Amino acid sequence: MQNSKYISIGKILNFHGVQGEAKVGYSKNQADFLKTLSHVYIYFENEYKKVKVKSIKFNNKFAILKFEGINSINDILVYKNCLLYVPQEEFEEALDEGEYLIDDLVGLDVYSKDKKVGVVVGVSNNGANDLLSVRGLSKKISLVPFVDELVPEVDLDNKKVYINEIQGLIE
C-alpha cells in the first residue's frame, strides 16, 4: 500500500477501559462503513501502521475499537490523537450511488446546459445537506445545495458537474 492514497476515517481520542480499547471520534454518517472494516492504518511517526480490528462498538458520541496486539492502556495511549485511515480505493468502493469524495469534486468545471458557469472550489455541509462552493465566472463564490434537483449529473470522467441554473444562483 505504499503508493496508495489514504482517507482519514477517525481519530483516536483516548483509551477506553483497561484492555487497550480505543475511544475513536468519527463522522456519524460513517458508522456502517466502520462496521465493515477488518483493518485500519494508524498514522504514527510519519508512517501508516496497519492494525487488525478485533471488534467495534458504538455509543452516542464515539466508537470503541479493539485492535489485535494492543492489550493495555499503555499500548493504546501511544496512539492517542493519531488519525485512522483506510486506502482511498477501499473507501471509494463503499460509497453509495451519488456519493463522492470531496477531492473528486473540487476542481470540476460547472456547467448549466452547455455553458460553463464556474468551477467547484470546495464542499461544505450546512447540517441539512452538502453544499458545493462554486466560483463563478465573475470570481464570486456561490453555494449550491448538492441535491438531485439542482445538481442532476456529476461526470467525473470528463471532470464536469451539471447544474440546473436558477436565476441568480451563480454570478
Overview of the structural elements:
Helices cover 12% and strands 46% of the residues. The chain is mostly beta strands. The chain has a six-stranded antiparallel beta barrel with strand order 1-2-5-4-3-6. The termini are far apart. The mean pLDDT is 86.
State the helical fraction.
Answer: 10-25%
**Order of H and E elements:** EEHEEEHEHHEEEEEE
Oligomer kind: single chain
* Mean pLDDT across residues: 86
By DSSP, the count of extended strands is 12
Q: Please state the overall shape, judged from the principal axes of the Cα atoms.
A: elongated
Low-confidence stretches: none
Gyration radius, rounded: 20 Å
Share in β-strands: over 45%
Judged by helices, strands and strand pairing, the structural class is: mainly beta
Give the N-to-C terminal Cα separation. 43 Å
Q: In what order do the strands lie side by side in the largest sheet? A: 1-2-5-4-3-6
Number of helices: 4
Major sheet: size, sense and barrel closure?
6 strands, antiparallel, barrel
Question: Which features characterize this protein?
Answer:
46% strand; 12 strands; 6-stranded mixed sheet; mainly beta; 6-stranded antiparallel β-barrel; single chain; 171 residues
What's the topology here?
Blueprint: E1 6-16, E2 21-25, H1 31-35, E3 39-44, E4 47-58, E5 63-67, H2 73-77, E6 83-87, H3 88-93, H4 102-105, E7 109-112, E8 115-125, E9 130-136, E10 141-145, E11 153-155, E12 160-163
Parallel strand pairs: 7-12
Antiparallel strand pairs: 1-2, 1-6, 2-5, 3-4, 3-6, 4-5, 7-8, 8-9, 9-10, 11-12
Brief sketch in words of this structure:
This protein is mostly beta strands and about 170 residues long. The protein has helices at about 30-35, 75, 90-95, 100-105, and strands at about 5-15, 20-25, 40-45, 45-60, 65, 85, 110, 115-125, 130-135, 140-145, 155, 160-165. The protein is built from four helices and twelve strands; from the N terminus they run E-E-H-E-E-E-H-E-H-H-E-E-E-E-E-E.
